[in-house]
Amino acid sequence: MGIEMTQEVPQHVGIIMDGNGRWAKRRGKPRLHGHRNGVINVRRVLEEAKVLGVPYVTLFAFSVENWSRPPLEVRGLMALLREFLRRETRNMVKDGIRLRVIGDFGGLPPKVQAILRESIEATKHNDERHLSLALNYGSRAETIEAVKKYVKLAQSGEANPDELDWETFSDLLYTADLPDPDLIIRTSGENRLSNFLLLQGAYAEIYMTPVLWPEFDEREFRKAVESYGQRERRFGKTGEQVRSEQPIPEEAPC
Ligand code: FPP
């Protein structure tokens, strides 16, 4: 069932899940308590994405910069991730969700890699809905990785730099088989993209909300999707062009 309006629904929503620490602090609890409640919201958002007809969801779960957090927090986040995968893989298989990871997979702890491999393998035949976890992810690192791959292709004669275009380059990014995000949500009132899908999100609509991630429930997700439906996406064209969907008549040659 799609959204109850004649509005467009984003095909791909990326989410920067922020504010777990503050949410916990306000309750006098350790930061991990916030992350634990944040994980609960992942399921709620996935459920609502299904109701609204959003097929692709990408969650920024752990950035390349997050390794510099206190070791206890990093270990706790990795444990939560494993717990989530142990619990949710069966649901994902049942719900037709295919799991992917975007990020430097090899840099994750071996136990996390192992369970991720199992979940990715178990869900690989699903093609209705798609959950991508950005783990050990950073847009700049991803771009540099892609450039290195391209240079190798060019050096071996498999690619011609004069013909390089976005289609070719985007195939070298972690997101090669994902559509570009239409909507990027950031919770907790921070107005930054924090190295998340910077190239892929070039034309994404951005939705910033002061709501902290552990409180970003299905209602909040629906609000974000509805807000997207009211936006006018221009992709560099004029508003008139987009509204009439007619190309501007070419000027008569002088
Ligand atoms: C940002 O909040 C959140 C993170 C760095 C981690 C997000 C991770 C989860 C919700 C749990 C693991 C995810 C999955 C998919 C199982 P913050 O700690 O920076 O909050 P603060 O800015 O208030 O300190």
Question: Your description of this structure?
Answer:
It is a single chain. This protein is an alpha/beta fold and 254 residues long. It has a domain at 12-138 and 180-228: 3-Layer(aba) Sandwich (Undecaprenyl pyrophosphate synthetase), CATH 3.40.1180.10. Helices cover 42% and strands 14% of the residues. The protein contains 8 helices and 6 strands. It has helices at residues 20-26, 31-52, 71-95, 110-122, 139-155, 166-170, 218-229, 239-244; strands at residues 12-16, 56-63, 97-102, 129-137, 183-186, 205-208. The protein has a 6-stranded parallel sheet with strand order 3-4-2-1-5-6, sandwiched between helices. Helix 4 links the parallel strand 3 (97-102) and strand 4. Helix 2 packs parallel to helix 3 and helix 3 packs parallel to helix 4. It is globular and about 55 Å long. The structure holds farnesyl diphosphate. Farnesyl diphosphate (FPP) binds at residues 17-22, 31, 35, 38-39, 42, 59, 61, 66, 77, 80-81, 84, 133, 188.
List the helices and strands and how they pair.
Layout: E1 12-16, H1 20-26, H2 31-52, E2 56-63, H3 71-95, E3 97-102, H4 110-122, E4 129-137, H5 139-155, H6 166-170, E5 183-186, E6 205-208, H7 218-229, H8 239-244
Parallel strand pairs: 1-2, 1-5, 2-4, 3-4, 5-6
Helix pairs in contact: 1-2, 2-3, 2-7, 3-4
Bound molecules: farnesyl diphosphate.
